[in-house]
């Protein structure tokens, strides 16, 4: 394994961009860089996928449900089934380890936010801001999803078989969003990295002010946002789309030849450009 | 933030009072300042339910004199109703300062409304052959218990839990708003209207009347104005998306319709459930699930979407 500590003096430090020394008592050190394979979060659990359990959460508050999930993971349960979630908010957030989580019902707002690693299957619908800031893992939703689906997504596969609301993938920074149905207005707004695939139609202002990333749409696009432009679908794109959609059983019967590709025109802003103050430092 | 909810029974009346109470109580966290209901019973010919108040809840803390003033104001309302040949059939004192009258009347409703509201402290909450509008400070459980809504049977209703952001915490600023002076029309709203003052100025110059500084009242007055000109509810909702700036999702109920509109930014939530027997809408699915506990298919209406359902 590479010695990450050797990279402490990087180019950006040499350029004087990190002069501020943070020393407050809430500045925590999460990783010991000298530890071999030490990239493990605090509150991450070593689980066994074969150890399965079920919980009925119909009479539990969100906080109780999330604490119970942690208790079960601490006991080594690697497959957990949640019954009767009742569209409650903020369920299954901040899970930072591998886990096979099955939710037999619908979730409310802010479900599965900030997760890093679990494989989640939701048999119902999800509300607004689902999987916000998700970092890794896979989530498959069988029904519809609300607005700001996958906002600020950083990694992993986020799949909704039904339709999603507005501002899907707003500010996404990585990962993949797959939508089996339609998506609403302002989807991909200020997108920075990653890929979004919409098998149905997309609402107005698609990809508005996107910095980078790629959006594929199988249906009609109401209109494109500022600086979002059509791109050429390459053989690599076709291969990736086919593989990814097939993986989640979303590949349309007629194939993917009709999919359109939308990318950033990069006339408004280039994500890789340096800030004026940074340019000054170089000069 | 505020929470809104609506429910319509497609096959006759149901326990709309208790159902709306449950839905709004599930949205309590979106706004605990005040709660309001506009619920619709069976319409009666030439008989109207008049809901009005003659003081604010906070006025009761202003001294002993207010209790006498409330009685005097109520007597003054009675006299004015009689002078207009409105026959008072039933009187119910919902709270010390809020009343429910059943009246028989076949005259000009605007004249009656203006004359009643000319009494100091008097504000009509609603007039309708089917509509009963109740709003007060506190969450849905408190208001519903206070006004005994649990046993109310009806066909449809809308409601609101309010987090006061741009006007006072009082009954006047609470939703729903009755669309003065039209019978049976009420509005609840979640959002902000950014061209409120411009629109209000135009409407006031056209003779419309406002009783609060709450931007949501504009939607009620706007709807009433459009319906007066002969527009359908659906036309009015569509027109509002073109003419009103801001971020908003709102519900309108009439004697036999329930409508919704979402602005072009789609920034305020609404979850919709349509079944053969009911249509339920709410800012959050938990409100719908409070009356439909089993797993259901729901979705978010999109930007600029307008829907209308009939009883």
The best one-word shape of chain A is: globular
Estimated structural class of chain B? alpha+beta
CATH superfamily of chain A: Glutamate synthase, alpha subunit, C-terminal domain
Per CATH, the class of the largest domain in chain B reads Alpha Beta
CATH architecture of chain A: 3 Solenoid
Multimeric status of the protein: heterodimer
Question: How would you describe this protein?
Answer:
The complex is a heterodimer of chains A (283) and B (311). Chain A is α/β, with parallel strands linked by helices. Chain A contains four helices and eleven strands; from the N terminus they run αβαβββββββββαβα. In chain A, helix 2 links the parallel strand 1 and strand 2. Chain A starts with 10 loop residues before the first helix and ends with a helix. Chain B has two domains: 3-39 and 136-310, Aminohydrolase, N-terminal nucleophile (Ntn) domain (Glutamine Phosphoribosylpyrophosphate, subunit 1, domain 1), CATH 3.60.20; 44-129, 2-Layer Sandwich (Alpha-Beta Plaits). Chain B has helices spanning 16-26, 65-83, 109-117, 140-146, 196-205, 215-228, 233-243, 285-289; strands at residues 3-9, 34-40, 47-53, 87-93, 98-104, 123-128, 131-137, 156-162, 177-178, 186-193, 246-253, 257-262, 271-274, 278-282, 306-310. Chain A binds chain B through residues 86-89, 105-106, 108-109, 123-125, 127-128, 143-144, 146-147, 162-163, 165-167, 184-186, 203-204, and chain B through 264-267, 269, 271, 284-286, 288-289, 293, 295-300, 302-303.
Salient structural properties:
heterodimer; A: 283 residues; alpha/beta; Pectate Lyase C-like; 11 strands; globular; disordered N terminus; B: 311 residues; alpha+beta; 2 domains; six-stranded antiparallel β-sheet; 28% helix
């Amino acid at each position: 394994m590479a010695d990450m500590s050797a990279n402490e003096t990087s180019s950006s430090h040499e350029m004087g961009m990190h002069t501020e020394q943070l020393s407050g008592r809430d500045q925590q050190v999460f990783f010991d860089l000298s530890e071999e394979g030490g990239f493990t979060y605090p509150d991450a659990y070593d689980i066994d996928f074969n150890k399965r359990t079920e919980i009925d959460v119909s009479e539990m508050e969100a906080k109780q449900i999330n604490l119970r999930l942690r208790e079960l993971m601490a006991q080594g349960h690697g497959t957990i089934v949640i019954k009767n979630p009742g569209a409650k908010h903020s369920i299954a957030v901040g899970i930072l380890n591998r886990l096979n989580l099955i939710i037999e019902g619908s979730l409310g707002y802010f479900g599965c936010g900030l997760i890093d690693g679990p494989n989640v299957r939701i048999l119902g619908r999800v509300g607004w801001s689902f999987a916000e800031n998700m970092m890794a893992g896979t989530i498959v939703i069988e029904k519809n999803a609300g607005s700001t689906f996958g906002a600020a997504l950083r990694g992993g596969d986020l799949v909704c078989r039904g339709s999603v609301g507005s501002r899907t993938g707003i500010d996404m920074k990585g990962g993949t969003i797959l939508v089996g149905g339609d998506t609403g207005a302002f989807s991909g707004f200020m997108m920075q990295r990653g890929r979004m695939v919409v098998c149905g139609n997309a609402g107005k202002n698609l990809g508005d002010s996107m910095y980078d990333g790629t959006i594929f749409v199988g249906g009609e696009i109401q209109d494109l946002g500022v600086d979002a432009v059509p791109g050429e679908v390459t053989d690599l794109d076709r291969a990736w789309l086919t593989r990814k959609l097939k993986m989640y059983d979303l590949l349309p019967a007629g194939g993917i030849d009709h999919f359109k590709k939308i990318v950033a025109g990069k006339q408004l802003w280039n994500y890789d450009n340096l800030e004026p103050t940074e340019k000054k430092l170089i000069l | 933030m505020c929470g809104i909810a609506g429910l319509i029974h497609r096959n006759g009346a149901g326990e709309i009072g208790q159902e709306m109470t449950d839905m709004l109580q599930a949205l309590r966290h979106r706004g605990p300042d005040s709660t309001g209901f506009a619920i619709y019973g069976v319409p009666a010919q030439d008989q109207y339910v008049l809901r009005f108040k003659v003081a604010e809840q906070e006025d009761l803390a202003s001294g002993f004199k207010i209790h006498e003033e409330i009685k005097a104001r109520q007597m003054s309302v009675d006299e004015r109703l009689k002078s207009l040949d409105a026959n008072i059939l039933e009187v119910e004192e919902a709270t010390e300062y809020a009343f429910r009258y059943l009246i028989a009347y076949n005259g000009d409703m605007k004249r009656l409304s203006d004359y009643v509201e000319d009494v100091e402290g008097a504000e009509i909450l609603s007039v309708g052959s089917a509509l009963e509008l109740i709003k007060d400070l506190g969450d849905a459980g408190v208001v519903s218990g206070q006004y005994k809504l649990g046993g109310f049977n009806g066909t449809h209703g809308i409601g609101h839990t309010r987090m006061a952001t741009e006007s006072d915490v009082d009954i006047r600023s609470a939703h729903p708003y009755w669309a003065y002076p039209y019978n049976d029309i009420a509005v609840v709203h979640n959002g902000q209207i950014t061209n409120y003052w411009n629109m209000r100025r135009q409407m006031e110059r056209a003779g419309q009347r406002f009783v609060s500084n709450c931007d949501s009242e504009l939607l009620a007055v706007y709807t009433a104005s459009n319906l007066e000109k002969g527009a359908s509810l659906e036309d009015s909702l569509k027109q509002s998306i073109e003419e009103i700036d801001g971020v908003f999702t709102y519900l309108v109920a009439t004697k036999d319709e329930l409508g919704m509109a979402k602005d072009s930014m789609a920034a305020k939530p609404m979850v919709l459930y349509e079944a053969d027997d009911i249509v339920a809408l709410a800012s959050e699915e938990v409100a719908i699930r409070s009356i439909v506990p089993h797993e259901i298919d729901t979705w978010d209406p999109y930007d600029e979407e307008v829907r209308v359902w009939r009883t």
